[in-house]
Amino acid sequence: MEAVNFTFEEMWDRIIACDHKYDGLFFTAVKTTKIYCRPSCKSRKPKKANVEFYYDINEVERAGYRACKRCQPEVEHSPNIQLVKSTITVLVNHYNNHMRLKDIADEVGISAFYLERIFKEETGDTPRTYLEKIRVDKAAHLLRSTGQTNLEICYEVGFQSPSNFYRVFKSWMDCSPNEYRKRNR
After folding, report:
1. What is the pTM of this model?
2. Is it the case that residue 91 has pLDDT exceeding 60?
3. Secondary structure class of 72 (helix, strand, coil)
4. Where is the HTH araC/xylS-type domain positioned along the sequence (predicted)?
5. Each residue of 35-56: pLDDT tens digit?
6. CA 137 → CA 94, 130, 153, distances in Å?
7. Residues in contact with 67: Cβ distance below 8 Å, sequence separation at least 6, in sequence order
8. How far apart are CA 154 and CA 165, in angstroms?
9. CA-CA distance, 8 to 51, in Å (whole number)?
10. Which domains does the chain have, with CATH numbers?
11. Where are the beta strands (DSSP E) in 43-135?
């Protein structure tokens, strides 16, 4: 399985948002308490300077951290969790490519119908919706942290047309990319 590749800031944004869709892809370790959590943990958020991120549960435990009793990151909740993780890894690593459901299903080694059904049961989203969310998250990060134009960001994060980018961004963020940039600069 390919490794997921997030920046520190992207992971920080996901834990602040308590985003359950990233559970299992990385773990948040707090240096001062020596506890690690899922990205969706509802516990009080630590200071940014006290946080480390790990992609592997064994690695975080070898570093001396213990599992949070509230979010229980060491417990796998579903027999399909590995399939979902593999699918999310493909989506995160190839978000900027043109991807059809069949391409994603071929990557994880199952039929497109089965992938869509299992993924929706486990995450509440279809792979396409999940991919849009990843793209919007990446676009929001770029809007906050770069001077790139909206059009450059649109294509960089994998949207095929500016109109689709604006429509999807607005549906997820309740504002246009320009409004988002103004609010978050």
Report:
1. 0.67
2. yes
3. coil
4. 85-183
5. 999 998 889 999 999 999 999 8
6. 14, 11, 11
7. 35, 36, 61, 73, 74
8. 6
9. 10
10. 8-67 (3.40.10.10), 76-185 (1.10.10.60)
11. 51-54, 66-67
